[in-house]
Every structure is written in structure tokens, then in C-alpha cells.
């Protein structure tokens, strides 16, 4: 078993990673092969469209690495579903868009592997909470 030197977490555009910051400095300081990571990440995430993809890179003492791609952040998926450029600056007072409960369920299905919810409905409630904190109104929530 190889000794782990570092675990680096980044959020990169799918299929469009470059050796420029933030990738280069984050991996370079641990001696990992930056170009090899960029090639592998772009190949692995090319099918994800224009999403932002969180990636967790484990760097070992022999300078080799492995990485795990996660699902896009909930805020990105909420903005995409509601058709927004960004969330509200005054989330409690200013509404910038609407989301239906069905859209929350769809986002929760997509995010389920990375969430700590026991079932789909509780995951959808977490997504609805994130949407509300972004100033997005959620309609049709059962038992709300």
C-alpha cells in the first residue's frame, strides 16, 4: 500500500481543465504530474457537458495519483433548473426564481451518490433548503 502525501479537492469545468491555476499550483506543490491529471480528468468528464465537477485527487508518496469525480454542486444544478445566472444576494428578502418539487426530486436523484440522505425525499428536502437559501422559491413541497 502506497503512502498518501496529500488529498486535493478542486472544482473544475467538465472536460476543460488546464494546467493553469487552480490545477497547476495545487498539484505542482505535491509533485504530481499535472498534464497527466489534466488529460485523465478531461477524458473522464467530457460527457458531463458544461457542468462544474468537484474532483478529489489523492497524491501518493511516489508522485502517482488517483482521483474521484463527484456530481456537480447542488447550487449549480439549482441555477440550471431555474434558469438563473446566479442566486440572490438577499436570500431571505429577494426571490430570483422558482423551482418545483419535481425539479427538486430530479436534482436529488442526480446528487444522491454524494449526499448523506437516507431516502430520495429527504435528499429533495435538502435540495429545497439549498434553493431557498439561494433566494429560489420552491413550490409544491408536500407537508411543508
TrEMBL record:
Transmembrane segments: none annotated. GO terms for cellular component: cytosolic large ribosomal subunit. Keywords: Methylation, Ribonucleoprotein, Ribosomal protein, RNA-binding, rRNA-binding. It comes from the Bacteria. Residues 70-138 form the Large ribosomal subunit protein uL11 C-terminal domain. GO terms for biological process: translation. SUPFAM superfamilies: Ribosomal L11/L12e N-terminal domain, Ribosomal protein L11, C-terminal domain. Coiled coil: none annotated. HAMAP family: Ribosomal_uL11 (MF_00736). This is Large ribosomal subunit protein uL11. GO terms for molecular function: large ribosomal subunit rRNA binding; structural constituent of ribosome. The keyword rRNA-binding applies. Pfam families: Ribosomal_L11 (PF00298), Ribosomal_L11_N (PF03946). SMART domains: RL11. Forms part of the ribosomal stalk which helps the ribosome interact with GTP-bound translation factors. The keyword DNA repair does not apply. One or more lysine residues are methylated. InterPro entries: Ribosomal_uL11 (IPR000911), Ribosomal_uL11_bac-typ (IPR006519), Ribosomal_uL11_C (IPR020783), Ribosomal_uL11_C_sf (IPR036769), Ribosomal_uL11_CS (IPR020785), Ribosomal_uL11_N (IPR020784), Ribosomal_uL11_N_sf (IPR036796). Residues 8-65 form the Large ribosomal subunit protein uL11 N-terminal domain.
